[in-house]
Amino acid sequence: MTVPLTLRTPARPADQPQPPDPTVLAAALDRLEEHDGGAPGRADPETRADAEVLLHARGADLDRLLAVAGALRDQGLQEAGRPGVLTYSRKVFVPLTHLCQDRCHYCIFVQTPGKLAKAGISPYMSAEEVLEVARQGAALGCKEALLTLGDRPENRWPVARQWLDDHGYASTLDYVGHMAQLILDETGLLPHLNPGVMSWAELQRLKPVGPSMGMMLETTSSRLWTEKGEAHFGSPDKDPALRLRVIDDAGRSRVPFTTGVLLGIGENYAERVDSILALRDAHARHGHVQEVIVQNFRAKSATAMMGAADLGTQEYAAAVAVTRVLLGPGMRVQAPPNLTDTAELQLLVRAGIDDWGGVSPLTPDHVNPERPWPHIEDLARLTAEGGYTLRERLTAHPHYLREARTGGDWLDDRLRDRVLALADDYGLARHDALLGEFPSSVSSSAAGSGGRLAGLLGDVQQDPGGADDAAWVELLGADGADLEELTALADQVRRDRVGAAVTYAVNRNIDASLGLPPERLTELAAEAVTLGATEVCAQGLPPTARGAEAYLDLARAVKQGGPGLHLHAFRPAELADGAARAGLPPADWLALLREAGVDTVPGTGARILDDRIRGLLTGDTDIPAERWIELVTAAHTAGLRSTATIVYGHVESARDQVRHLRALARIQDATGGFTELIPMPWLPSESPVPVPGARVATLRESRALHAVARLMLAGRIDHVQAAWTKLGMRGAQRVLAGGADDLGGVLLDGVLDPDAGPEQGRELTVTDVTRLAAELGRPVRQRTTTYEQVG
């Protein structure tokens, strides 16, 4: 192969800083050691600067850095309850396709259709080929099947699109999901899905068949993506912003996620630090990064970068150690054992790794086929020589499995039992587990309190209005058989009140705080109409400098772009702000909003109608509970109906939840203005302030609250929405089976300005809605904002 001469293949990036003065490096090491073996848990300039300096450590300075990093790792293992234990996953490597839409200049995994055809290789592995590899791996004691592939090859190669069409798959990711399910059902191996860039919805679709997923960040350097000749130029899915969004969406989807950095592809030291800190920040928001891989570049023949130098061993060890220092003792840090010569692996152990990643006794590393895996026995011996014990883990790391045992939602409930059957009490792999003897993929949820609340449920069924607060509080704690009976009763009431259909609206969100000009708002509204939307929802405080007119201008602009669109806009806090800007009483301001085009208002911001709790959730920046009630009541009186909401699962009690629902019932009795109730679990990653002592709602709590809300409000608020952006697809489906009847809006992004909505990147398709409903045996129906039928 002839390498294009236009591609730059430097041994190191031209702008790499020179090594610092030895006194500067010594001072950085002194500061590091002064923190008892750990750097400050922040990314202030001093920490960033020190991290960049520490990357230059070599020789005796490197020994000092490794000592700190190793001590941090040991501290983390001690705190995790596994002192002295390093882990690996016994896996098979299943390369579903070697086609890809990207053109990374260092990759030999990706092939062209012509090369595959010449070698007699199909564009994709067949189901039989996939199962043959998986069965051989299972026979050798593997428990993980790593599904890896090129990124969305159908976007580039017609032959990929044709193969998918011929075999009945909508996309490569659809095919990945089917193969993962096949592997689960036929072999019991646990799929780890590594298919590249995924949307929020795609992560949700794959979660039932993937106990863990992964995608390397590689680097935050946009320079390597935008500049011709750099490693990622011409690769659409290597946009760092896009990859960071995927990592964030994996956190929102509660997916145990493996990611990492690839070092030596042209990034400079500042970019290495930025990449590590970006992963730290994502994990701080969601707690989902189960391990960070620090991977060293190895030049491959017949690639554009075959002339680039491999990352030096000491440079690599320093980068691993700095990663450990920046990520702290609690993060699992992995180094692939086949990309470093065996004699130098001890250096990586000293640098603070605690995991070797997946190692296969059967299949090669298809991404680095020139670097064979070490024998697992040799890896165990080498680990022992470093003073550590090697233990096998599953594809999802132990603490996620321990949380799953106690109600955590890191594993889809349809997958949980078969994963946990392979884990010991700590969450590592059971050596005596037999893959052929795994439980059904549908978890049994009938075990628990055994019908203790049967009498109370009978009373509620006879007379829901006669139940007192104490009864509802007790029902909110229902579990096991009681929870199944509670949700079945709520689902029966749902059928009686609103019928069988799962309803949804087609809408798009606009973040008013962006201050988009009227002409852009008009364009977005017109695009929404062409995409089939019946509603635009606008929330957020417009820029203060634009005064009260900002609210009115937004409404007029939306109506200009889509005269038939329903404008659902401005929460109670925004109603208060607009009235204050205009110097008008709420009634007069609401009249102006109606005249400008506002049709209904979101009843969000209710949280829990208790000022003590509201202060904890927002840092006393929220309007008081009585003010929220006053403004919602005023909106209803002015002819603007609203949604009703409750945010649960933080610091409130079941009694607080009941009181909140009672308050909503009183408002509805007075005004009749609520169109629906939207229960929303509180998400720490979306909280404006830290909330000490807050819990996170479990699926059990979500199911119980939706069921109780249905029963308490029957005849008052007859529509209960499953907030899919908060619950995820499976959580939404479970509450739809227990009292909820609506999925809300699909949140179209469009193409003119996909980032204009506050929940950009999270979009449902009608196919998603239909599938969710069909699995429940229910039809779907598109509705308007006020629950009239569309079409």
Task: Describe the fold and architecture.
Helices cover 43% and strands 12% of the residues. The chain contains 29 helices and 17 strands. Strands 1, 2, 3, 4, 5, 6, 7, 8 and 9 form a 9-stranded parallel beta sheet that branches. A 3-stranded parallel beta sheet has the order 16-10-17. It has a 3-stranded parallel beta sheet with strand order 11-12-13, covered by helices on one side. β12 (535-539), α21 and β13 form a beta-alpha-beta unit. Mean pLDDT is 93; it is low at 1-12, 37-43 and 440-449.
Strand runs, count: 17
Strand fraction: 5-15%
Question: Major β-sheet, in short?
Answer: 9 strands, parallel
| Structural class assignment | alpha/beta
Total helical segments: 29
Overall outline: globular
Instruction: Kindly report the average pLDDT value.
Output: 93
- Rounded to the nearest angstrom, the distance between the terminal CA atoms is 59 Å
State the share of residues found in helices, binned by percent.
Answer: 40-55%
Low-confidence stretches: 1-12, 37-43, 440-449
C-alpha Rg (nearest Å) = 28 Å
Could you provide a short overview of the structure?
With 791 residues, the chain is an alpha/beta fold. The protein has 29 helices and 17 strands. The chain is globular, with a radius of gyration of 28 Å.
